[in-house]
Amino acid sequence: MMGVIGPEVVSDVDFDLRRLRYFVAVAEELHFGRAAARLHIAQPALSRQIRALEDALRTALFVRDRRTTVLTAAGEQLLADARDLLAAAEAAHRRVTAAAEAKPVLTVGFMPASWSPRRCECWSATGRTSASG
Amino acid sequence: MMGVIGPEVVSDVDFDLRRLRYFVAVAEELHFGRAAARLHIAQPALSRQIRALEDALRTALFVRDRRTTVLTAAGEQLLADARDLLAAAEAAHRRVTAAAEAKPVLTVGFMPASWSPRRCECWSATGRTSASG
DNA sequence: AGAAATTACGTCTTCCGTAAAAATA
DNA sequence: TATTTTTACGGAAGACGTAATTTCT
Question: Which domain CATH number covers B89?
Fold first, then answer.
C-alpha cells in the first residue's frame, strides 16, 4: 500500500519493528529453527513473517539453498540497518521515558555503524530542569 | 510484554512504525479530527492507537484539555525521535533496495536533529560494484 | 446546541500454533 | 529416512468504521 495523495506522499515503509527483530534473529542464526526458538515463536510463523517482509520490500533477503540459508546483499544491508533502527528505537524509548520524568537528558556521542563515516565528531549535553506545565 | 528470559532480554520497544506515523500526525496537527483526515482513517481509530501507544510507553504524550490538545514533554521528545526514526526507516528501505540492485550506495552526511550535537562532522562515500553471488 | 474526543459494538484482517506436506541429502 | 522449510487450517488478537456517549463552550 502506498502513502497516498496530496502533499503527503510517504513511501509507507512497511517494516514493523517486530518483523525487523524476527529478521535479525534469522540473519544472525542463519537457521529458521534456532531463530524461532530464540524468539519463542513457532517456525512456520517466522517463515511467514520473513516472507511477508521480503514481499513488502519487494526484495529477497535470504538465499534458501535447501540445506543452507545465506543473506543476499540486500539482506546484509538490512541486517546493519535493522540493528541500528532497533537500537535507535530503544534509545528513543529511553529518552521519552526520561523526558516524562522531567529528568535531564544526557546525549553521548553515538552513531549507527551503517552510516560508515570516515570521521565523526559528535557530542552534546542537554540539561533540562522540569519546565513542563 | 517483556522480551523474556535467557541471554536475550530485549526491552521490546512496542512502537510500531504505523503508530509512530499516527502520533506524528496528531502531534503536528494538535487535532485528532484533522490528523485522522490526513491519515485517511476514522477519528476513533486514531484515538485508540494513540492511547495504545501511551499505554505501551507507559507515558502520557498529550494533555487533552477538552478543547485543546497539547504535547507533554515526553510527547515533544517523541515527536523529534519519531521523525528521525521514520526517516531512518525510509532511508534503510532505500539502501536495501539499492543493495538488491547492486548499485553503489552514496551516503551523504546526515544526522537526526534530536541528537542535538554541538558540532558534527560526518561524511562517507561508499562505492560498491556488484560483488554478490 | 456545537465541537472534540472517547467508548460500544460488529466486522474483517492479520498472526499464531499444530499438523501435514514438499524437498533434499 | 532424517532434516529443514513451507503450506493448510482453525482459533485468538488486533484494527477499523459507524454510531452512541461524554464534556466543555
Answer: 1.10.10.10
